[in-house]
Specification:
This protein is of the alpha/beta class and 323 residues long. Helix content is 37%, strand content 16%. The protein has 12 helices and 10 strands. The strands form 2 sheets. It has a 7-stranded parallel β-sheet with strand order 3-2-1-7-8-9-10, sandwiched between helices. Helix 1 crosses helix 12, helix 3 runs antiparallel to helix 4 and helix 7 runs parallel beside helix 9. The N and C termini lie close together (10 Å).
């Protein structure tokens, strides 16, 4: 059985993990743990543990559509009322309790997978409690992933991100990369999720030793505060610069985005990622966009994309690639 490691943030890679669980592959997800907003940020500030929101999303993605749908509903359930509970996610609370009981996030996830009888592995990119440091092209820096969502009229282009304090790659993540036949990066917020998941020290060295084919799933849209004016070529170059090796395949959406949705994104100065990889033989183009528009909970204060990748459509593409 082929081994596949998926790297990114929980929301972005949710449809990828959901697609892979229906294929004859062994799935591991390596997830960024520098989130500092929303329910997961509140819990981290109160308890001092690693944020679990993206990890919980990846656990939920492993739940089967039939037979385990209530596990997924429980992990994704968000309280809409209650003075202390409003806005919190039940899955976040469960994982926080397991962190407290076991002492480590990796062990908490292992126990959650046992309790819910989920096939697959969810791995925090590092075992340390970290924040995301964002360095802009003018040399200025800010600390905290949630700062990227703060309103600004003219967001400064990002030069790079790193973790503070500097933290090593989780040995389990290092092992998953070493054993993988394929590593899939993305989709997801480019700097807040993808680069954050690749930021732990030793990640590039793990890729240097790995024989896995690297597949990058391109985002559907730019993000005003992260990737404004970045083309598809820019995205790939930045991934390769960080990994210090080339990407083997790039999956890009070729589906039509409704004009009404484009208009809503344009109001936020966000647009489809420009495809300037016409002559690149590594690119696989397919309709992989979901027809459903995401509706956020009223008590969910985090930034959420309207458009998502479709897991069923991705499954068909990945089925052809993962040979």
């Amino acid at each position: 059985m082929k081994k596949v490691a998926v790297i990114g943030g929980g929301t972005g890679i949710f449809p990828v993990t959901s697609a892979l669980k229906h294929l004859p592959v062994d799935v591991s997800t390596i997830v960024a743990v520098s989130d500092s907003g929303g329910s997961t940020g509140r819990i981290r500030d109160e308890f001092g543990f690693q944020p679990v929101g993206d990890l919980r999303q990846s656990l939920a993605a492993l739940a089967e559509d039939e037979g385990q749908e209530w596990i997924r509903k429980l992990l994704l359930y968000r309280f809409e009322k209650g003075t202390g509970l409003k806005g919190h996610n039940l899955g976040n609370l469960i994982l926080t309790a397991l962190q407290d009981l076991t002492g480590t996030t990796s062990e908490a996830l292992y126990r959650a997978q046992q309790i819910f009888r989920l096939e697959g592995t969810v791995i925090p990119a590092t075992e340390q409690v970290v924040d995301l440091k964002i360095e802009f092209t003018d040399g200025s820096t800010v600390i905290g992933e949630d700062t990227l969502d703060r309103d600004t009229d003219s967001p400064m282009p990002i030069k790079k991100v790193s973790l503070v304090p500097a933290a090593p790659i989780n040995p389990y993540a290092q092992e998953a990369i070493a054993e993988a036949d394929y590593v899939i990066i993305g989709p997801g917020d480019f700097y807040a999720s993808l680069m954050a998941a690749l930021a732990p020290q030793g990640t590039a060295q793990a890729f240097a030793k790995s024989q896995a084919k690297i597949v990058y799933i391109m985002n559907l849209m730019t993000r005003r505060t992260q990737t404004a004016h970045m083309t598809a070529h820019n995205h790939v170059l930045e991934i390769e610069r960080h990994l210090k090796k080339p990407v083997d395949l790039v999956i890009m959406n070729a589906g039509q985005i409704p004009k009404s949705i484009l208009k809503r994104y344009a109001a936020e100065h966000e647009y489809p990622v420009t495809d300037d990889l016409e002559d690149d033989s590594r690119v696989v183009r397919a309709d992989i966009i979901s027809d459903a528009v995401y509706q956020a909970s009223q008590s969910d204060t985090a930034h959420r994309s309207l458009l998502r990748h479709d897991s069923t459509k991705l499954q068909q593409v990945l089925k052809r690639i993962l040979k």
